[in-house]
User: What shape does this take?
Amino acid sequence: MVLPKPDQDTKTDPRDELEPGYLVICWDDPVNLMDYVTHVFQMVFQWPREKAEHHMLQVHKNGKSLLTRESFEKAEHYVHQLQGYGLHATMEADK
Amino acid sequence: MKLVEANGQTFIFELSERERELLGAILKFYPLLNADYHRLTKGKANAKKIEESQALLVEAMAEQKAAGKRAVAEFLSEANWPPAGNAFRLTLSAEKMEWFLQVLNDVRVGSWVKLGKPDPQRGTEPEAKIENLPYLGAMELSGWFQSVLLSALES
Assistant: This one.
């Protein structure tokens, strides 16, 4: 008995077929208060304080932090929100 | 400015007359950041989608700042500052706290931009000139008021 071959899915991540995905990045600046940045991450992403603080420290120490990878629309929404709070945030296509 | 009462939804602060004056003075700077200050991407916006989104961002920021300016004027009206002995009381909802933090941050970041984006850790200090004094004061004071609000939210 020969078992039927399972369908071979040669596709990669289905998200990548539709669009590349966009990275939401927050960049360091010497003016936004550390507690404020933590608070903004909590509000925008609904993250617990520990996670928000972790990303804030990444921004502070490494100059930037990759916050999330999303579709264009969602990434755009997050960037608009972060910038509304006055943070230096951008979105870049995930190549 | 100190927190005197909070229940998670409402925050009541007490401010001295001097603090109220200072807060009023720095809020009059709002908005300081131009609507087109923020860029959606770091690189050149060569994709049509990004260009369109950048235009939307500028439009959204302009609307936010126009609405914020009207709200600041209303916020500073006498009715929001009932006297309490020698001090004044300010009651803020959780939603208003978020708005207030954003307004103060606009003044802080906007002042920093006006000062030429100094970065003391990299050896760039704001230029010592008389025109910079209001922005130096506004940057430091808005940061101080922000810290009070953030501490209240944590408590």
User: Anything to note?
Assistant: The mean pLDDT of chain B is 89. The longest helix of chain B spans residues 48-75. The CA atoms of residues 1 and 15 of chain B lie 4 Å apart. The beta strands of chain B are 2-6, 10-15, 83-84, 87-93.
